[in-house]
Q: What sequence folds into this?
């Protein structure tokens, strides 16, 4: 029997990009923003414009050193028992991130085959049974069942099934078996 497929985003879902963005932004700008202070803001509003944000995202080793989301490793291992997992990241906007993301995945998720890693631009072409992402722009095109992973920038969006952490992801997907 063919396993159902899941597309899993990296940044904001597997990797805690919020923590690193806040830390780098505060260091660069001499500010003291917190996770709480940016809830409900867009990325551009939270980090006062695209220029500083793009500079941080294009800095060397930014993506390679992101912390792993709590319970992500164990959850993907468990999900692999019943699903085929694809890691899908819209990485080509930040070309320096390609090598870093491959290295990060190899370190933290060595059980994910290179054949199941998709670094792309748009995710509109992804055709899986489920997609877990923190951006509506990706989930809105999902052919299967979209699952929104909570992040500061999507907290006010309500048009997709929401999960707040990896324990909720497991609970949600185990109901489908």
A:
């Amino acid at each position: 029997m063919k396993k159902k497929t899941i597309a899993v985003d990296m940044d904001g879902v597997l990797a805690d990009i919020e923590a690193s963005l806040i830390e780098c932004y505060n260091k660069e700008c001499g500010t003291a923003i917190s996770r709480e202070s940016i809830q409900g803001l867009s990325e551009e509003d939270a980090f006062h414009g695209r220029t500083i944000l793009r500079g941080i995202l294009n800095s060397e080793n930014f993506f390679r050193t992101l912390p792993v989301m709590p319970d992500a490793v164990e959850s993907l291992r468990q999900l692999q028992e019943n699903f085929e997992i694809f890691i899908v990241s819209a990485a080509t906007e930040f070309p320096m991130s390609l090598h870093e993301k491959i290295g990060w995945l190899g370190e933290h998720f060595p059980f994910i085959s290179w054949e199941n890693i998709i670094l792309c631009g748009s995710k509109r072409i992804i055709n899986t049974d489920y997609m877990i992402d923190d951006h509506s722009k990706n989930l809105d095109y999902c052919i299967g069942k979209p699952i929104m992973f909570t992040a500061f920038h999507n907290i006010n969006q309500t048009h997709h099934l929401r999960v707040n952490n990896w324990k909720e992801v497991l609970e949600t997907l185990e109901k489908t078996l």
The first helix runs from residue 17 to 29. The radius of gyration is 16 Å. The mean pLDDT is 95. Helices lie at 17-29, 43-46, 50-57, 72-79, 97-108, 136-139, 166-174.
